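Final report, Chapter 2: Outcomes

The project's central promise was a pipeline that accepts a single protein chain and returns its three-dimensional structure in a standardized token representation, suitable for archiving and comparison. That pipeline is now operational. To close this chapter, we reproduce one record exactly as it appears in the project archive, with the input sequence first and the structure output second.
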Amino acid sequence: MKRFLLPIFIVACSIGYINIASAQTNKSHSIKPHWIHKLPKPTNNSFNYELDLSMASSLDEAREKSLAGLIANSGFENGVVVISDYESKIIDSQVLENGEIKNIQSEDIEINSHIQGNEIQLHVKEIAEYWERDASGTYHLTKLYAKSTSKDTPSFDSTTPTSKYGVRGLWRSMIIPGWGQFHKGSYVKGGLMLGGTAVLAAGVIFTEGQRADYNKRIYQTHDVNMIRRYQTKRDIFATSRNICIGAAAALYLYNIIDAIAAPGAERIVVKRSDARGNNYVLAPSVTMEGAPVMTAAITF
């Protein structure tokens, strides 16, 4: 009977391990966002959605590099050369804490973007971001932007990042256990749901077949000892069958609850909107010394 309980134990422990592992803090989301693989579709031609990748030793620096890289790429698209200079300083300071003097290091980052060529104006709206930190402490940042396609002010969509899928995951998991998890990007969990259900279904079929076989043998012999032996084996397989049925029902119920309640890969809900939202407006400018620079203004 223990061999029939082993698959149930393995499935339960695996699902528990996946839930615990999702609490790791070396990335911003437990599941890589859906929008990384498939960009949202804009509802009008005044802008496009665009990804930008950057790496840095700190998250703030990666964000700064991402925006500067977006500016530079947009300059190349418009026949303009944009040069970004990075200046990083390590500042040492001392603080008194609990009667002890502690040394603290902080990094001061300054970015200057210079434009050479024709004047351009760029409207950018930050949509979402995802980052991972590797073993060396380097941040790998992916940011999703909405970027204007012309000098005219774009009509950005109203966007909402969400990890909820509602009935989209529910009805799929009701038909095939694990399908809803696959749809939400939880591939390992979905595989466990589907595989666990298949193993338990096979267990039900096998144990029921063995129970029926031993029950048949009881009526084919008149040996009392053999009858008792067959009855014992029949009851063992009947109990194992019931355990498999109960476990399959519990797994199916968990699969449905997880499909509607557990968060999935972050996706972007897009709605047509005339509102501008919080946008960066990037445009060339001139300093008091006469040097050309790229300035960024934020509108609310």
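Archive annotation: The beta strands are 47-56, 81-97, 100-116, 122-133, 139-148, 158-162, 267-271, 279-286, 292-299.
This record, like all others produced under the grant, will remain available to the consortium after the project formally closes.
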